[in-house]
Amino acid sequence: YQQYFDISGKLYREEFLVDEIMEKCMYYDTLGLVKETIDLDKGTGNLVNHHYNGKVNFSGNYILGIAHGDFSWNSFNGKLSAKGAYFNDERNGLWEWYDMENKLHSKGNYSFGNKVGTWTYYYPGGKIQRTAEYDNGNLNGFTTWFYENGQVDVKKNYIDNDAEGEAFYYDVSGELQQVRYYINDKVVSYSYNGPDGKLVEPIDVSSGTYKAVTYFKNGQKSKEYEQVKGDVQGKFTNYYADGKVKSVNNYKDDEYEGLCSEFYPDGKPKTEKYYTAGLLNGSSKVFYPNGKLQKEMNYVLDELHGATKYYNESGKVVKVVTYYSDKVTKEENL
User: Fold this and answer.
1) Which of 156, 169, 185, 281 is disulfide-compatible with 276, CB 3.0–4.6 A?
2) Angular region, 124: left φ>0, alpha ψ -120 to 50, beta rest
3) What does pTM read for this prediction?
4) What are the residues whose beta carbons fall under 8 Å from the beta carbon of 153, sequence distance 6 or more?
5) What values do phi and psi take at 173, rounded to 5?
6) What's the CA dihedral at 38, 42, 46, 51 to 10 degrees?
7) What are the chain's domains?
8) Alpha-carbon distance 132 to 140, whole Å?
């Protein structure tokens, strides 16, 4: 049999195999008690798993222990959260993911387990957040990130998952922040617009150790950071074109570490997140443009754990969703 454990080390799923084919699956609650038992005749049938409130969490078809056919996942409130199909245990065709409000979060195609074609990711409001080109499971071509106002944030070219060539970084206003030049996924030089609006001569950083300060064409700083032996270390500051701080992220060995903050153009806080070795860990907060708290979450090693609170713009808690190891156990509308 196979066992699966959550971030607290507690058993949450157990699969019983006969000749390497799953014939029984048991799910456990947070107290270690059996929550649900599912039997499959010789590994064949429709496997349906439920949330703590009894609503369907997951539904998928198996043939002799192999995922084959349509699969779907639902949120705690019963709304669709993901759907797609397997062919002979590999994802195939169009897959879609949805947020808790049942709005499209991302979509893309698989070909026998590998991502292919254009993948699109969305902001909660429905605007495109990112597009990426895949070939046989690897990033190939341009990946473009967008701000919510539709302006390009970052445009970077990839060859077999490695950044290659020019990468462009922009402010939310559309002003160029920086151009980085990559060879085999390593930054070898960078540039930015001078006062004349033309790119300055590329600055060689092929050693991997350097301090970078880049500028908008108006002379204001656009980025400020340090790399040591190819890894970003310490504070990385992004600026708006008017000189105000856009974000401050702390790094250790090229990964987020500690507090990472974003700010609205007027200086009010936008997000505050804590990381450990690149994983969300501890408190995370999202703020309205007026500076008031919008959402408060707690993470343990990148998994939601504990209460997530939603606030209206008056500061009143209107919804509480309780998570255990990234799974919803309770949802309350206040």
Assistant:
1) 281
2) alpha
3) 0.90
4) 145, 146, 147, 169, 170, 172
5) -80, -10
6) 20
7) 257-334 (3.90.930.1)
8) 8
